[in-house]
Amino acid sequence: MKKDLLHVAIIMDGNGRWATSQGLKRTDGHKEGGKTLEKLALHAKKLGIKYLSVYAFSTDNFKRSEEEVNYLMDLLIYYFNHKLKKVCEEGIKVVFSGRKENLRKDVLEAMQSIIESTKNNNECVLNICLNYGGQEEIVDASLKIYEDLKQGKLKKEELNRETFAKYLYQDLPPIDLLIRTGKEKRLSNFMLYQMSYAEIFFSDIYFPAFDEKAFDEAIAFFYNRDRRFGNVKNNN
Ligand code: IPE
Ligand code: IPE
Ligand code: MG
Predict the structure, then answer these.
(1) Domain 7-133+174-223 part of CATH 2.60.40.1930
(2) Where would I find the H helices in the chain?
(3) 148-166, pLDDT tens digit by residue?
(4) Domains in the chain: boundaries
(5) Which mutation among 13, 28, 71, 180 tests ligand 1's pocket best, with the greatest number of atoms within 8 A of CB?
(6) Is 207 touching ligand 2 by the criterion CB < 6 Å?
(7) Is 61 a catalytic residue?
(8) Residue 79 has what DSSP assignment?
(9) Residues that place a CB less than 5 A from ion ligand 3
């Protein structure tokens, strides 16, 4: 992979609608979505993508029924302890972004377990956003910055967009390519700070059906973009 595509992020949307379209329960869609994530994580690694961020559960997803939330949490535990752990043996390091508060103890334990078992992997990083909100992340970073300013660990003059980014949940490069599956064209409070110059690929395909070929199309879309970062083309 050329080095200008360092960080890909995915809003894995459309599990419920995929299931309904197949005459299945919404929760079956989440199960299928888990399998898709396994495939895509391996595929991204093979393509040489160093950072993959995925939106697994938003802070606002707690508004859903208790049954659906519990199903998702149980599924995540299963993935962290088994399926994903296996996939990560290929050299993928797992990190998490999001708030710990409101997460069940068994979910936190499974998260810790996969962090531990993959911490020395250095092929690429899989950043799983769980109980995650982009605005919440900016608020949480601001509170940490306030503390450091108060304690003199950070000087006001040192604060800029790069130093601010160090206070986010994970120290990751900016997002180069954002993929949202499942027809909707919105950001739904995902990685707002990191997304400032991301190229955005919206796909009508529901996440469970989003395969390696669809991922490759998103990558091809990225390489067809002319990124200017506020500059003008061919400015020397
Ligand atoms: C994305 O699929 C997975 C999560 C939000 C956890 P959805 O569950 O949002 O599926 P749709 O959008 O209702 O089809
Ligand atoms: C975003 O999808 C969250 C995840 C994919 C985990 P949602 O389905 O929650 O977003 P909205 O409600 O359509 O904006
Ligand atoms: Mg959705």
Answers:
(1) no
(2) 15-21, 26-46, 66-78, 84-88, 105-118, 134-150, 161-165, 212-223
(3) 999 999 999 999 999 999 9
(4) 7-133+174-223
(5) 13
(6) no
(7) yes
(8) I
(9) 13
